[in-house]
Amino acid sequence: MLAFPVALFLFFFSAISAHLITLGGESTECFFENLHKDDKLTVSFQTDSEDGEYGIRFHILDPAGRFLVNEQSTSFGEFQITSQMDGTHKYCFQNVTPLVRLFTKPQFASHLKFVSFNVHGVVYVSDEDPDHQDPMERQVRELSELLEAIRDEQEYIVARERMHRNTAESTNSRVKWWSLIQSGIIVAVSVFQIYWLKRFFEVKRVV
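That's the Endosomal protein P24B sequence above. Prediction below.
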């Protein structure tokens, strides 16, 4: 009877745990999972940054070095693979600074990206007949997958809200400065017109 509460706790703990890494300019962080053939692995992540550039490179390699996933520029996602062979599989997050940013902001420290990721759905295929597996264990696994889906959706919503808020604040800042510039131009033109009309009538009165 003790096995079920322990298994339930482990499933719940894995469902709510997440990892956070910081990627400096042009840096790469890799992680490894030992899988058997037909095992499944799911990785989901969200990115954030200080300079508004959210895209990173993400890839998963099999033990032979072949790409199973190869995303060149993405800020969030969920990727699942099914192992085709036994061995160590590698997944990596890479911060790539856009070429324009290299010329405008050469300091790599200004291109920090923060990646929150989860490794879930690691399903190890059992040699046991699925029809004879413990029904309680199957239900716990299904509940764990449901919790993971809910958590991923919440993280996605929070990340998208943060990105939209940053975009809105940046747009508001540009609108504010453009309004101030327009006001300054209007004031300058008005002062010039008053000065020009005053000079015009003074000259006309002298004549």
